[in-house]
Amino acid sequence: MTTEVYLVRHGETMFNQLNKVQGWCDSPLTVKGINDLKRTANALSQVHFDNMYSSDLKRAIDTVHLMKNYNQVSTIGKIRKLPEFREVFFGSFEGDDIDQTWQAVANAAGLAPTNNVVKIINQVGIYKFREATKKADPRHLAENKEELDQRMERAIAVLHQLTLDERRVLLVSHGDFIKTLGIKYWNESDGIHDIPFPDNGSISRGIIHSDGSFEIVDYNMNAAEIVI
């Protein structure tokens, strides 16, 4: 049996507004974030889910509970929190100014000074960008490509086992982690180059096949694009 997975990015947070690096560190949802999520929740209110899951970070947990409360056709019990679907870890840069962080990463990648993360990725590629982030981190704790690949594969394996008897589930995760899943599993990605960063409250739709393989078939949809 295949399982349809609605991957929702959490709503906007205080750190998003303040332009701070937010990986495993956390901050509360903003009023705008909550209002944006209500539009997503309304769009999904008539979609039946056999279960709902989330990352174990609070911004994701708050988001999944809002989705649960707005849904009118699903009976959801206790929500399982999955640390495998946490955001990408940025090590010592957690909570720092984003622009200063990208400047440090550009320097580690051997590029001219810039705080434009898209420019950095376009010049060196997403995988070298991950390596440069780890190199720039004074403690070298930030996740690199190999560590992220291993965690993504573990995340899909865990979700596959949890959803063996479930046809459709909702899972709240994070922007950079969903994007990295998209690079690896989206059928419109070449698996190498960068893709657009998913919006807060956006929906990406994936399929877990009976053999445990995974693919993303829709990426970064907003509430208006959801067709029941």
UniProtKB/TrEMBL annotation:
GO molecular function, a single term: fructose-2,6-bisphosphate 2-phosphatase activity
The active site annotation covers: 10, 87
Q: Which GO terms describe its cellular component?
A: cytosol
Q: Which PROSITE patterns match?
A: PG_MUTASE
Positions contributing to substrate binding: 9-16, 59
Check the record and name the Gene3D superfamilies matching this protein. Answer: Phosphoglycerate mutase-like
Question: Per UniProt, which keywords does this protein have?
Answer: Hydrolase
The record's section on InterPro entries has:
His_Pase_superF_clade-1, His_PPase_superfam, PG/BPGM_mutase_AS, Phosphoglycerate_Mutase
Q: A single GO BP annotation from the record?
A: regulation of pentose-phosphate shunt
Q: Name one Pfam family in it.
A: His_Phos_1
Per its UniProt record, what PANTHER family does this chain match?
FRUCTOSE-2,6-BISPHOSPHATASE TIGAR
Protein name, please?
Phosphoglycerate mutase
Organism in which the protein naturally occurs: Lactobacillus corticis
Phylogenetic lineage: Bacteria, Bacillati, Bacillota, Bacilli, Lactobacillales
